[in-house]
């Protein structure tokens, strides 16, 4: 019997893979039947050991570290993704590896306050479909900004009502953080299920 798909998740730039936010995300994903595997980049491990923040390593190093996480899952349908920085690194990895899909939670389309420093040039080279769950008010890419971009057809975005970078909506809206997290979990589970039924998606070493 074929093993279940696996979703590998990396953290955002400032919080580890077992942060309260990531714990909530994994809880809603697993409630939808999604098996996950989380990991910390080495700079985060060093920051945790030192007890003080450290800046992320350079992108090529992060991609290499993420790539090493794939090895135990050869032969399975492997989805990659993560929160913010983690999702960005996963998307770069998906331009060079045969993967089932990418799921990003709060994609950093640009640094806050710097809308012209876009991080989308690599997205047309994706080798698999990508789902982005994005808050409508995310300072790393608001809805009105992102909808003006020329993004590839294989990329889909779930807009979370009023959500910021942590998916938190303002109090004046009926939506809640929990509702936005659950919507993200449901969308990710559906994306993974559909992709896993489209054929042979198992990760292969190139």
Notable features of this structure?
about 210 residues, alpha/beta, Rossmann fold, 6-stranded parallel beta sheet, about 30% helix, globular, disordered C terminus
Structural commentary:
With 206 residues, the protein is of the alpha/beta class. It has one domain: 3-Layer(aba) Sandwich (Rossmann fold). The chain has 6 helices and 6 strands. A 6-stranded parallel sheet has the order 2-1-3-4-5-6, with helices on both faces. Strand 3, helix 4 and strand 4 form a beta-alpha-beta unit. The C terminus is likely disordered.
Question: How is the main sheet built?
Answer: 6 strands, parallel
Compressed to H and E, one letter per element, the order equals: EHEHHEHEEHEH
CA radius of gyration is 16 Å
Question: Regarding CATH, which class?
Answer: Alpha Beta
Compute the number of structural domains.
Answer: 1
Mean of residue pLDDT values: 94
Runs in which pLDDT lies below 50 for 5 or more consecutive residues are: 200-206
Task: Give the helices and strands, then pairings.
Elements: E1 6-10, H1 20-31, E2 35-39, H2 42-50, H3 59-68, E3 78-83, H4 85-93, E4 101-105, E5 130-135, H5 143-146, E6 155-160, H6 177-196
Parallel strand pairs: 1-2, 1-3, 3-4, 4-5, 5-6
Short précis:
Helices cover 31% and strands 16% of the residues. The chain is built from 6 helices and 6 strands, in the order βαβααβαββαβα.
